Amino acid sequence: MTLSIRNFILAALVAAGMILTSTALWIPAKARLAQWLLADAWAESLDSGTAVKPWPWADHWPVARLSVPNMDIDQIVLAGDSGSSLAFGPGENMQAQAMTHAARIITGHRDTHFSFLRNIQPGQTLMLSDHNGTVIYQVDQIQVVDSAVTRLMPTAFPNGLILVTCYPFDALTAGGTLRLVVMASAVEPVKPLHPGYNVHMAISRPTATRALDGLAAKGFIQRISSEQDGREQTVQPTAAAVEIHAALNEASGVVTTRIKHTIGEEVFADTVNNVRGVRSALK
Protein backbone atom coordinates (compact mmCIF):
# COMPACT_ATOMS: atom_id res chain seq x y z
CA MET A 1 0.00 0.00 0.00
CA THR A 2 1.46 3.34 -1.02
CA LEU A 3 1.88 6.23 1.39
CA SER A 4 -0.79 8.26 -0.40
CA ILE A 5 -3.36 5.46 -0.13
CA ARG A 6 -2.49 4.94 3.54
CA ASN A 7 -2.90 8.65 4.23
CA PHE A 8 -6.21 8.65 2.40
CA ILE A 9 -7.56 5.80 4.54
CA LEU A 10 -6.33 7.51 7.71
CA ALA A 11 -8.05 10.70 6.62
CA ALA A 12 -11.20 8.71 5.89
CA LEU A 13 -11.10 7.20 9.37
CA VAL A 14 -10.80 10.61 11.00
CA ALA A 15 -13.40 12.25 8.79
CA ALA A 16 -15.87 9.40 9.15
CA GLY A 17 -15.38 9.47 12.88
CA MET A 18 -16.19 13.15 13.05
CA ILE A 19 -19.29 12.70 10.91
CA LEU A 20 -20.60 9.43 12.30
CA THR A 21 -19.48 9.37 15.92
CA SER A 22 -23.01 9.96 17.13
CA THR A 23 -24.44 7.14 15.03
CA ALA A 24 -24.13 3.36 14.95
CA LEU A 25 -22.78 3.59 11.40
CA TRP A 26 -19.34 4.56 12.65
CA ILE A 27 -18.65 1.20 14.31
CA PRO A 28 -18.78 -1.07 11.23
CA ALA A 29 -17.22 1.65 9.05
CA LYS A 30 -14.24 1.97 11.37
CA ALA A 31 -13.85 -1.80 11.61
CA ARG A 32 -13.78 -2.21 7.83
CA LEU A 33 -11.44 0.70 7.11
CA ALA A 34 -9.05 -0.31 9.87
CA GLN A 35 -8.60 -3.82 8.45
CA TRP A 36 -7.11 -2.34 5.27
CA LEU A 37 -4.43 -0.56 7.27
CA LEU A 38 -3.90 -3.58 9.49
CA ALA A 39 -3.30 -5.80 6.45
CA ASP A 40 -0.64 -3.38 5.26
CA ALA A 41 1.01 -3.32 8.69
CA TRP A 42 0.91 -7.12 8.85
CA ALA A 43 2.68 -7.43 5.49
CA GLU A 44 5.36 -5.00 6.70
CA SER A 45 5.70 -6.96 9.94
CA LEU A 46 6.26 -10.23 8.07
CA ASP A 47 8.84 -8.55 5.87
CA SER A 48 10.76 -6.89 8.71
CA GLY A 49 10.25 -9.47 11.46
CA THR A 50 9.24 -6.75 13.92
CA ALA A 51 5.95 -5.37 15.22
CA VAL A 52 4.55 -2.64 12.97
CA LYS A 53 1.82 -0.28 14.16
CA PRO A 54 -0.98 0.34 11.63
CA TRP A 55 -0.93 4.09 12.32
CA PRO A 56 1.40 6.28 14.39
CA TRP A 57 -0.81 6.69 17.45
CA ALA A 58 -1.96 3.06 17.63
CA ASP A 59 -1.41 1.20 20.90
CA HIS A 60 -1.72 -2.18 19.20
CA TRP A 61 -0.15 -4.09 16.30
CA PRO A 62 -0.93 -7.17 14.18
CA VAL A 63 0.17 -10.57 15.49
CA ALA A 64 -1.70 -13.05 13.30
CA ARG A 65 -4.09 -13.59 10.42
CA LEU A 66 -7.33 -15.55 10.89
CA SER A 67 -9.03 -17.17 7.91
CA VAL A 68 -12.21 -19.21 7.49
CA PRO A 69 -11.90 -20.31 3.84
CA ASN A 70 -15.45 -21.48 3.15
CA MET A 71 -16.95 -18.32 4.70
CA ASP A 72 -14.64 -15.86 2.88
CA ILE A 73 -13.33 -14.57 6.22
CA ASP A 74 -9.84 -13.07 6.26
CA GLN A 75 -8.98 -10.89 9.25
CA ILE A 76 -5.89 -9.43 10.87
CA VAL A 77 -5.62 -10.23 14.60
CA LEU A 78 -4.25 -7.63 17.01
CA ALA A 79 -2.09 -8.00 20.10
CA GLY A 80 -4.32 -7.77 23.18
CA ASP A 81 -8.05 -8.09 23.68
CA SER A 82 -8.78 -4.73 25.30
CA GLY A 83 -11.62 -2.55 24.11
CA SER A 84 -9.26 -0.24 22.26
CA SER A 85 -7.96 -3.15 20.19
CA LEU A 86 -11.32 -4.81 19.54
CA ALA A 87 -12.67 -1.61 18.00
CA PHE A 88 -10.36 -2.20 15.05
CA GLY A 89 -10.09 -5.97 14.80
CA PRO A 90 -10.11 -9.28 16.66
CA GLY A 91 -7.66 -9.32 19.56
CA GLU A 92 -5.54 -12.14 20.96
CA ASN A 93 -5.06 -12.76 24.67
CA MET A 94 -1.30 -12.38 24.92
CA GLN A 95 -1.07 -14.06 28.33
CA ALA A 96 -2.52 -17.24 26.86
CA GLN A 97 -0.22 -16.97 23.84
CA ALA A 98 2.82 -16.90 26.12
CA MET A 99 1.84 -20.18 27.82
CA THR A 100 3.37 -23.47 26.73
CA HIS A 101 1.01 -26.00 25.13
CA ALA A 102 -2.00 -23.76 25.70
CA ALA A 103 -4.87 -22.68 23.51
CA ARG A 104 -4.71 -19.39 21.68
CA ILE A 105 -7.69 -17.21 22.60
CA ILE A 106 -9.00 -14.60 20.17
CA THR A 107 -11.91 -12.30 20.95
CA GLY A 108 -14.01 -10.16 18.60
CA HIS A 109 -17.17 -8.05 18.68
CA ARG A 110 -20.41 -9.84 17.79
CA ASP A 111 -21.63 -6.99 15.57
CA THR A 112 -18.47 -6.49 13.49
CA HIS A 113 -15.49 -8.83 13.00
CA PHE A 114 -16.89 -11.89 14.78
CA SER A 115 -20.45 -11.61 13.50
CA PHE A 116 -19.65 -14.61 11.27
CA LEU A 117 -19.56 -16.84 14.36
CA ARG A 118 -23.36 -16.74 14.23
CA ASN A 119 -23.10 -19.23 11.35
CA ILE A 120 -20.06 -21.27 12.37
CA GLN A 121 -20.56 -25.04 12.48
CA PRO A 122 -18.67 -27.99 13.98
CA GLY A 123 -16.24 -29.46 11.48
CA GLN A 124 -15.44 -26.17 9.76
CA THR A 125 -11.84 -25.33 8.97
CA LEU A 126 -10.03 -22.36 10.54
CA MET A 127 -6.53 -21.18 9.64
CA LEU A 128 -4.29 -19.04 11.84
CA SER A 129 -1.02 -17.64 10.48
CA ASP A 130 1.71 -15.83 12.39
CA HIS A 131 5.46 -15.33 12.05
CA ASN A 132 6.03 -19.04 12.68
CA GLY A 133 3.73 -20.27 9.93
CA THR A 134 0.16 -21.49 9.53
CA VAL A 135 -1.83 -23.90 11.68
CA ILE A 136 -5.02 -25.50 10.39
CA TYR A 137 -7.79 -26.12 12.93
CA GLN A 138 -11.16 -27.86 12.89
CA VAL A 139 -14.09 -26.65 14.99
CA ASP A 140 -14.91 -29.19 17.71
CA GLN A 141 -17.30 -27.49 20.11
CA ILE A 142 -19.56 -24.46 20.22
CA GLN A 143 -20.79 -23.40 23.65
CA VAL A 144 -22.58 -20.52 25.33
CA VAL A 145 -21.08 -19.76 28.75
CA ASP A 146 -21.57 -17.17 31.45
CA SER A 147 -18.30 -15.27 31.81
CA ALA A 148 -19.28 -14.29 35.36
CA VAL A 149 -19.23 -17.97 36.32
CA THR A 150 -16.96 -19.74 33.83
CA ARG A 151 -13.34 -18.76 33.23
CA LEU A 152 -11.55 -19.96 30.10
CA MET A 153 -8.42 -21.95 30.96
CA PRO A 154 -5.98 -21.98 28.00
CA THR A 155 -4.01 -24.93 29.38
CA ALA A 156 -7.17 -27.06 29.52
CA PHE A 157 -7.28 -27.08 25.70
CA PRO A 158 -3.64 -27.69 24.67
CA ASN A 159 -2.57 -26.24 21.32
CA GLY A 160 -6.15 -25.43 20.40
CA LEU A 161 -7.80 -22.26 19.16
CA ILE A 162 -10.65 -20.55 21.01
CA LEU A 163 -12.76 -17.80 19.45
CA VAL A 164 -14.95 -15.74 21.77
CA THR A 165 -17.68 -13.16 21.21
CA CYS A 166 -20.59 -11.69 23.11
CA TYR A 167 -23.94 -13.47 23.03
CA PRO A 168 -26.72 -13.37 21.97
CA PHE A 169 -25.99 -11.74 18.61
CA ASP A 170 -29.28 -9.84 18.56
CA ALA A 171 -29.04 -8.46 22.10
CA LEU A 172 -30.45 -4.92 22.26
CA THR A 173 -27.91 -3.80 24.85
CA ALA A 174 -24.21 -4.53 25.24
CA GLY A 175 -22.40 -5.52 28.40
CA GLY A 176 -24.01 -8.87 29.18
CA THR A 177 -22.01 -11.75 30.63
CA LEU A 178 -22.95 -14.45 28.10
CA ARG A 179 -20.26 -15.49 25.61
CA LEU A 180 -20.28 -17.71 22.54
CA VAL A 181 -17.15 -19.87 22.70
CA VAL A 182 -15.91 -21.71 19.61
CA MET A 183 -13.24 -24.34 20.31
CA ALA A 184 -11.11 -25.79 17.51
CA SER A 185 -8.35 -28.42 17.55
CA ALA A 186 -5.22 -28.36 15.42
CA VAL A 187 -5.47 -30.91 12.62
CA GLU A 188 -2.29 -29.91 10.77
CA PRO A 189 1.10 -28.97 12.21
CA VAL A 190 2.63 -25.56 11.63
CA LYS A 191 3.32 -24.95 7.96
CA PRO A 192 6.25 -22.66 7.13
CA LEU A 193 4.98 -19.29 5.97
CA HIS A 194 7.29 -19.13 2.96
CA PRO A 195 7.86 -22.66 1.68
CA GLY A 196 8.94 -23.48 -1.86
CA TYR A 197 6.31 -24.84 -4.22
CA ASN A 198 6.65 -27.01 -7.29
CA VAL A 199 4.79 -25.41 -10.15
CA HIS A 200 4.02 -27.47 -13.25
CA MET A 201 3.12 -25.18 -16.10
CA ALA A 202 0.47 -26.75 -18.35
CA ILE A 203 1.43 -24.30 -21.09
CA SER A 204 4.36 -23.68 -23.44
CA ARG A 205 7.80 -22.85 -22.05
CA PRO A 206 7.84 -19.24 -23.36
CA THR A 207 4.44 -18.53 -21.82
CA ALA A 208 5.47 -20.14 -18.54
CA THR A 209 8.64 -18.08 -18.46
CA ARG A 210 6.76 -14.85 -19.14
CA ALA A 211 4.24 -15.71 -16.43
CA LEU A 212 6.88 -16.28 -13.77
CA ASP A 213 8.93 -13.32 -14.97
CA GLY A 214 5.85 -11.12 -14.58
CA LEU A 215 5.18 -12.37 -11.06
CA ALA A 216 8.82 -11.95 -10.07
CA ALA A 217 8.93 -8.43 -11.49
CA LYS A 218 5.91 -7.53 -9.39
CA GLY A 219 7.70 -8.79 -6.29
CA PHE A 220 5.36 -11.73 -5.71
CA ILE A 221 7.80 -14.62 -6.11
CA GLN A 222 11.43 -15.57 -6.42
CA ARG A 223 12.77 -18.62 -8.25
CA ILE A 224 14.61 -21.33 -6.35
CA SER A 225 15.24 -23.97 -9.03
CA SER A 226 13.90 -25.28 -12.32
CA GLU A 227 14.02 -28.36 -14.55
CA GLN A 228 15.90 -28.26 -17.83
CA ASP A 229 12.80 -28.06 -19.96
CA GLY A 230 11.48 -25.12 -17.96
CA ARG A 231 8.10 -26.71 -17.34
CA GLU A 232 8.76 -27.69 -13.72
CA GLN A 233 9.94 -24.86 -11.51
CA THR A 234 10.24 -24.29 -7.77
CA VAL A 235 9.29 -20.81 -6.64
CA GLN A 236 8.98 -19.09 -3.29
CA PRO A 237 6.48 -16.39 -2.28
CA THR A 238 8.02 -13.16 -1.07
CA ALA A 239 7.10 -11.75 2.32
CA ALA A 240 5.21 -8.93 0.61
CA ALA A 241 2.80 -11.43 -0.93
CA VAL A 242 2.64 -14.48 1.33
CA GLU A 243 -0.71 -15.50 -0.11
CA ILE A 244 0.75 -16.04 -3.58
CA HIS A 245 1.12 -19.74 -2.75
CA ALA A 246 -2.65 -20.02 -2.83
CA ALA A 247 -3.25 -18.36 -6.15
CA LEU A 248 -0.55 -18.61 -8.79
CA ASN A 249 -3.18 -20.23 -10.97
CA GLU A 250 -5.41 -17.18 -10.44
CA ALA A 251 -2.76 -14.65 -11.47
CA SER A 252 -3.97 -14.21 -15.02
CA GLY A 253 -6.80 -15.44 -17.17
CA VAL A 254 -4.33 -16.54 -19.87
CA VAL A 255 -2.04 -18.47 -17.54
CA THR A 256 -2.90 -21.95 -16.25
CA THR A 257 -0.75 -23.38 -13.47
CA ARG A 258 -1.00 -26.31 -11.15
CA ILE A 259 0.57 -26.01 -7.75
CA LYS A 260 1.53 -29.01 -5.66
CA HIS A 261 2.66 -27.95 -2.21
CA THR A 262 2.92 -29.09 1.36
CA ILE A 263 -0.47 -27.98 2.58
CA GLY A 264 -2.32 -30.19 0.10
CA GLU A 265 -4.62 -29.53 -2.82
CA GLU A 266 -7.82 -29.35 -0.73
CA VAL A 267 -6.48 -26.59 1.51
CA PHE A 268 -5.04 -24.89 -1.55
CA ALA A 269 -8.47 -24.77 -3.15
CA ASP A 270 -10.05 -23.41 0.02
CA THR A 271 -7.50 -20.63 0.42
CA VAL A 272 -7.61 -19.24 -3.11
CA ASN A 273 -10.32 -16.77 -2.10
CA ASN A 274 -8.07 -15.24 0.54
CA VAL A 275 -5.64 -13.78 -1.97
CA ARG A 276 -5.94 -10.11 -2.84
CA GLY A 277 -4.42 -8.30 -5.80
CA VAL A 278 -2.68 -11.24 -7.43
CA ARG A 279 -5.16 -11.75 -10.25
CA SER A 280 -3.96 -8.64 -12.10
CA ALA A 281 -0.25 -9.28 -11.57
CA LEU A 282 0.48 -10.01 -15.22
CA LYS A 283 -1.81 -7.42 -16.79
UniProtKB/TrEMBL annotation:
Q: InterPro entries of this UniProt entry?
A: HTH_MarR-typ, Sortase, Sortase_D_1, Sortase_dom-sf, Sortase_proteobact_type, TAT_signal, Tscrpt_reg_MarR-type_CS, WH-like_DNA-bd_sf
Which Gene3D superfamilies is this protein grouped with? Sortase, Winged helix-like DNA-binding domain superfamily/Winged helix DNA-binding domain
The UniProt keyword set, sorted, is: DNA-binding, Hydrolase, Transcription, Transcription regulation
Question: Does this UniProt record's set of keywords contain Transcription?
Answer: yes
One term of GO molecular function: hydrolase activity
HTH marR-type domain residues: 200-232
**Which Pfam families does the UniProt record give?**
MarR, Sortase
Q: Does the keyword Protein transport apply?
A: no
What name goes with this protein?
Sortase (Surface protein transpeptidase)
User: Organism, per UniProt?
Assistant: Nitrincola nitratireducens
Lineage per the UniProt record: Bacteria, Pseudomonadati, Pseudomonadota, Gammaproteobacteria, Oceanospirillales
